[in-house]
């Protein structure tokens, strides 16, 4: 069994540094990130959603995601695939995020 973490695990780990400033919780624990993939040319595709359509933080979050992922050696370019299905809800948040926000 390999002890090396997969690219997706590494990417999700660095994306925990991207915090939604309105909620003060990272986008991984908010479960805004649905998938992260890397192709052979170094293109990292992030499939994600937002808490609401028209979120005023879209550009901020995109820039922060790109910054974190481009710091990884194997990532040459980042593409963000914004999706609305499945729709995000409070129920999707991790237990840690719910505790941070006082939701039980």
From TrEMBL:
Q: Where is the MIP18 family-like domain?
A: 8-80
Output the Pfam families linked to this UniProt entry: FeS_assembly_P
InterPro entries in the cross-refs = Fe-S_Maturation_MIP18, FSCA_dom_sf, MIP18-like
What protein name applies here?
Answer: Aromatic ring hydroxylating protein
């Amino acid at each position: 069994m390999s002890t090396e973490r997969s690219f997706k695990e590494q990417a999700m780990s660095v994306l925990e540094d991207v915090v939604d400033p309105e909620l003060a919780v990272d986008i991984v624990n908010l479960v805004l990130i649905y998938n992260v993939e890397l192709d052979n040319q170094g293109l990292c595709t992030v499939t994600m959603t937002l808490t609401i359509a028209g979120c005023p933080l879209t550009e901020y979050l995109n820039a922060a995601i790109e910054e974190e992922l481009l710091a990884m050696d194997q990532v040459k370019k980042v593409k963000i695939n914004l999706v609305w299905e499945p729709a995000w809800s409070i129920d999707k948040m991790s237990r840690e995020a719910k505790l941070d926000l006082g939701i039980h």
